UniProtKB/TrEMBL annotation:
Pfam families: PmbA_TldD_3rd (PF19289). It comes from Streptomyces alfalfae. This is Peptidase. Residues 91-116 are annotated as: Disordered. Residues 227-458 form the Metalloprotease TldD/E C-terminal domain. It comes from the Bacteria. Signal peptide: none annotated.
Amino acid sequence: MSRSATKPHEIVERALDLSTADGCVVIADEESTANLRWAGNALTTNGVTRGRTLTVIATVDGKEGTASGVVSRSAVTADDLEPLVRAAEEAARGAGPAEDAQPLVTGVAPSPDFTDAPAETSSAVFADFAPALGEAFARARAGGRKLYGFANHEYVSSYLGTSTGLRLRHDQPNGTLELNAKSPDRTKSAWAGRATRDFTDVDPAALDAELARRLAWARRRVDLPAGRYETLLPPTAVADLLIYQFWSSSARDAAEGRTVFSKPGGATRLGERVAGLPLTLRSDPREPGLESAPFVLAHSSGDDSSVFDNGLPLGPTEWVRGGDLAHLVTSRHSAALTGLPVTPAVDNLVLDGGGDRSLEEMVAATGRGLLLTCLWYIREVDPATLLLTGLTRDGVYLVENGEVVGEVNNFRFNESPVDVLGRASEAGRTERTLPREWGDYFTRAAMPALRVPDFNMSSVSQGV
């Protein structure tokens, strides 16, 4: 094979051929992005980028166990391969035995498109969206509001090859839209976001109308003190809370007594009731509209992820089933430590099993309460209870007798997502949503709105 070959599957094969380690895993990630940005009702920038990252994982057997070395580099060509492979091998030989060492995965059927060219996006993905956005600018200008935001679309084609014969490939499209409307004096702000695979299902006119309605609500201002309020959390806010819960659901950490899912004596809370409603929190790599990699892609090891698990098939997993804690995240290593099933993380999250009412219908059924837009700057306070703190942002509204009667001040909140699930008195219709806080890291989510009778607004915030 020519040293000048740069096709991703050829790069993978060449790296495997160069390896002298006892085991080798190679991941080539080909990324293609297109984006638009706008401010004050006008496009400001647009661009298209391409990139490649190659990760080589070398494993070396020794008397005391198997060690691993991981090296990742970007913009790799065929001429860069041998130094990269040797660096991974040197890292492995200089490391002690890997705690998570397992035999590399075998027996997975190859992807039929492994040798195909990577998927690519381009500005053409915005062919229908961009003109519709221009029309939204005109309506916003006529309505006395200014639109700010960005749209981003990317494809990541991941090629995975191993010395045990795996040849797997996954194409991951990912699109996000964030749209912010402000009053001319910028004292009032409203936000909307959408996740999409291809921008064919995003309607700028509908989003602008939604933001115009929220700015109209804000014409009346009502100041409220900190306290506990009946609160309607929209799907985006529910996603931000439950994604953090998902990230904190390590089986090993729970078994070692370090998380909200721990019980005294090294046990976990598996099987316990954690939601007051019969809700199911689940992941499925083949969930329609939220498809993600159907096999493990691990560029590094952690408490419940392992580079040795690369290529391990993924399937549907229920983390909470009918309100009961059903599974925690494990690698093959942490599953063996805890005696639990092997249930690696999957890159999407769905909460369902609630009602069929829309958020608007839930507002209409509210006597007095708060309607949030989104959460922001979420940080962990106490891992033992998963207590989080954060801020509301871009609109908190007062609901009285089924109608929004005005905007109230922003708040800092202190809540645990596990407690929120336990106290929620109503769940609406599950719909695809974009997490506001975690949208740079996790976009494939579908959530219902939740009604929480006593959401803790711990202090008043002066943010917009």
